[in-house]
Amino acid sequence: MEAYAAALTYAIPFFVLLILIEGVAAYVMKRQINVGADTIASLSSGMTNTMKDILGLSIVILSYEWMVEHWGIWDIQASVWVYMIAFIWLDFAAYWSHRFNHTVNLFWNRHIVHHSSEEFNLSCALRQSISGIVGIYFFLYIPIAIIGVPAVVIAILAPIHLFAQFWYHTRLINKMGWLEYIIVTPSHHRVHHAINPEYIDKNYAAIFIVWDKWFGTFQEELPDQSPVYGTLKPVSTWNPLWINFMHVWGLVKDAWRTQSWKDKLRIWFMPTGWRPADVVARFPTKNLVTDVYNRSKYRPDISKFLLVWSWMQLGVTITFIYYALLNFGDFSYAAILLYMTAVFFSILAYTSLMDKHWVAIPLELMKVALAVAVMMKMEVWSTWEVQLVLMYMVSSLLLTVYFSLIEGRKTTLLNKREMV
Questions:
Q1: Interval 279-314: pLDDT, tens
Q2: 3-state secondary structure of 340
Q3: Residue of 42, 90, 206, 252 with fewest CB within 10 Å of its CB?
Q4: What are 57-115's pLDDT values in tens digits?
Q5: CA distance linking residue 66 with residue 64, whole number of Å
Q6: Cα dist. 225→186, 197, 228 in Å?
Q7: What residues form DSSP beta bridges with 59?
Q8: Cβ(396)–Cβ(364) below 8 Å
Q9: Cα–chain center distance at 284
């Protein structure tokens, strides 16, 4: 885990730099590809995923190392050819795991957060799930484990394969000539993120687009059909925790409400969006997008002051996480768990504040209490850094109260006057 934390200290600045470059390029090209609150939500979601990973909050049913050790037939040594074959197989497995995530009701919950943005840009690439806690696709790696591909090869290639999927989340790069026939390009992936009837559930490939062409899920980006992004049932929140679990919560409610025991069991593994007939009759699905070209995007009324403060909160949160990554080896697991929990509540607090939701204040209070607990555990009250953190905590709490109770009330009164 320390090695992964070290890798992230290089990856995070690189991703942030590319996002800034994309933003500058969009400004020069006079194209609107970023919305402040949406970008903050995307980066915040990425940080929750990072925290889950460095804390090791995942359950692996069968690790690759165990499979290759117990099932491997040959003792293969790492070589260029082994790395090439393993990379191709990783991509094949990624295609199928991605396709399962889109087409099975329960598994969609593992992936919905990545599609929840109604924009499409590099920050959107970092909207990653914290709900995929259990590693359920181990069976896709059984063939290369039986062959005996060393675990170290997979350990090296897996993050490279993941990071290589970042660059094509952009609207600024058009079609790329002959590369369109070989690799996944921005054009291909724009189609994948779109909810247009022509595009939905297409282009699952991660690196090599040939998988979609071979398995019948390829769709070219059409010149007269601009992609519309998001989900058919909009999430309508910036809070990453709610986005991560809203779909499975809907499944839980439907499984409870249906009178059919068969439907209580099969709802989890039916195609994404399937609901029992008796539940649909009593509780019809609300807020579905029926006309993708005339849908309204989620845009709660956020003042410039609140938006600037939210950007500052994002910057502080990134700083806290980066500090933990740089000093990961100095933390006990209990200390890093408490530290990350405080950061997690911070993210939930300021994203809920952008939603104008009342829960922002109790979440902020939890953040402050956890931060104090962290400082007590680490016994570092006298340093100037801690004094600065305390000043930030007090300011954050006061401004959360202001935005929730004072500015929020003014906005409500103003809206009522406009309605009258």
A1: 999 999 888 998 999 888 999 888 999 999 999 999
A2: helix
A3: 252
A4: 777 778 888 899 999 998 888 889 999 999 999 999 999 999 999 999 999 999 999 99
A5: 5
A6: 15, 10, 9
A7: 134
A8: yes
A9: 28
